[in-house]
Amino acid sequence: MDVREQAAAAPVPAEDLAEAGLRLEIDGPVATITLDRPDKRNAMTFAMWRTLARIGDALPGSVRVVVVRGAGKAFSAGIDLSMFSEGGGPTADPQEGDRFIAELQAGYTWLRRPEIVSIAAVHGYAIGAGFQLALACDLRVLADDAWYCMKEPALGLVPDLTGTKPLVDIVGVNRAIDICLTARRVAAPEAAALGLAERLVPAAGLDDAVADLVAALLQVDADAAVATQRLLREAPGNTLEQQCAAERREQLARLRALRGG
Ligand code: CAA
Predict the structure, then answer these.
(1) pLDDT by residue (tens digit) across 14-30?
(2) Cβ distance 200 to 144 under 8 Å?
(3) Which one of 34, 65, 90, 239 is CB 3.0 to 4.6 Å from 23, fit for a cystine?
(4) Ligand 1 centroid from CA 190, angstroms
């Protein structure tokens, strides 16, 4: 049994999901995670981030696509602001603090695994931690009335839920400075023009657009999809020579597998 198969033997209990404001549905190769605190616009808590990490650990190896969506009027209004007054954040000890935030980041990092394609279905708005969750996904399907906002600097904080790297990778340092340091709302058409949406769709058609995308992703060979994503993910850090070598390695492995050994 590999690590993921073992983890799949102990899925996250439904009561833990509900307590964390999450829903998880697994239908064959597709897992759907719903941020499910609609009365609070899916504001996110430490428990929600930790439970997202547990979902990542427990995901069955048969899942190929993970859809992340928000219940109600919006994708997510970001961190639950009541947590600032309630405390419970990192302590002043630097090592403990580092570990604390790393645990929360783990709720986001697994969405980049090459074994899955993660899709954020964004409607309404995605603010702060919600915007970063959309950035953590491989693909963003954005409703045309949605908007993003990186609110953290306006609150005296930095975006620390893995969002700065994908934001810079997609829009470049200068536009990322504009978006983060003004904490402005980026409306869907601008977001799409900047590359922050792989699909821009009418709000009423969001679910259908996500379903179409999922169906298209499931059409290609599962092992080729994983190998290709692995290649694409290492491309930015490779020289052309290294990338050519990686392509040869992956292709020879594919050909061996297709020949049956
Ligand atoms: N935390 C806690 N509760 C929130 C919330 C949040 N982030 N966002 C909305 N809510 C609650 C509201 O308090 C309200 O609750 P009640 O009905 O009990 O009063 C309910 O959700 C509905 O809110 P609104 O009536 O304001 O809904 P709206 O759709 O008109 O407006 C909004 C939505 C524009 C998102 C507005 O609520 C808002 O600006 N919220 C705050 C957004 C924010 O600053 N988020 C933090 C970003 S920073 C971050 O995420 C990362 C970090 O680490 C700091």
Answers:
(1) 999 999 999 999 999 99
(2) yes
(3) 34
(4) 23
Q: What is the pTM of this model?
A: 0.96
Q: Map out the domains of the chain as residue ranges.
A: 3-218, 222-258
Which amino acid makes up residue 62?
S
> Hey, what CATH class is 3-218 in?
alpha beta
**44 Cα to the center of ligand 1, angstroms:** 10
Of 1.10.286, 1.10.3470, 1.10.12, 2.40.50, the CATH number of 222-258 is 1.10.12
Backbone angles phi, psi at 62, to 5 degrees: -75, -10
Instruction: Give pLDDT tens digits for 115-166.
Output: 999 999 999 999 999 999 999 999 999 999 999 999 999 999 999 999 999 9
**pLDDT over threshold 80, residue 56:** yes
CATH topology identical between 3-218 and 222-258: no
Ligand 1 and 158: CB distance under 6 A: no
Residue 225, ligand 1, Cβ within 6 A = no
Query: CA 102 → CA 46, 68, 144, 183, 259, distances in Å?
Result: 12, 21, 33, 24, 42
Q: Of 81, 90, 192, which is closest to residue 141 (Cα–Cα)?
A: 192
First to last CA, the chain: 21
Distance 258 CA to ligand 1 centre (A): 51
**Residues 160-178: pLDDT tens digits?**
999 999 999 999 999 999 9
**Which value does ipTM take for this structure?**
0.98
CB 159 within 8 A of CB 132: yes
Sole residue written with tokens 């169906």: 215
pLDDT digits (tens, 9 = 90+) for 91-119: 888 899 999 999 999 999 999 999 999 99
Only one residue has tokens 């996110």, namely 44
